[in-house]
């Protein structure tokens, strides 16, 4: 006679896992899918909030209709303001090309993420947004990338002790803004500057950073838009620099410290024959480079240089 088998009930082994393990599992899901788990039970209701470490608007809103943008904005409000203890963001990335966010709301979001110790902030806006002063005194930020068609107002006090990457595709309203901003980043290793509007008149680009390893200066967009109105004085003191990229007309004057550790340089210089002396000054400062990619408009500009022992690719 066969032995009767007792029915075995369904065992929810997933819910028996610790919160930290569950949050780790949810972190691999898209945010919208992680949020959906909140309906499973009271245990899961707010668990998703602790699993979100990257808040990327472009990723979250991919395939979402514009009519639902406002719903997502309200979701971000609740996430940042209602769950202060659960949310621990590593990265906050917002782009107004994929969402409709007003400057005041963005201001509050930035403050909320900084309060939670965010490490990376990327702001891509068409118009210059209002930025909180806390953005320039954060001890948690490691990466800051700003891109908007307008000015960035740098406060008097700048203290970003752990910032290693700074990308600026903006306009600075005064010549000392960049110097003040860079000087406040004592651990800076990667600096990229691409102006996005008109810097009429004499502009002094003063970069002093003992820790800087990579520097990209791309002012070519201004030369294209305002060919007769841009004047630059470039001052660079970066003794630890390993990679240097420069894309612009030849500036009025260059003061560059000896770059003895420079490995790679990518230089595009242009404008007129009378700038030959300044072009000479620029290239002499990087004479120790091991690999040089040089793109110029007039070959005569470099006719007086000694470029021996340098790997050169010359485009004319």
Automatic annotation (TrEMBL):
> What's a Pfam family this protein contains?
LRR_At5g56370
According to the entry, what is the taxonomic lineage of the organism?
A: Eukaryota, Viridiplantae, Streptophyta, Embryophyta, Tracheophyta
Q: Which domain of life is it from?
A: Eukaryota
Specify the protein name. Answer: F-box domain-containing protein
| SUPFAM superfamilies on file | F-box domain (SSF81383)
Q: Where are the transmembrane segments?
A: none
Q: Which residues form the F-box domain?
A: 17-57
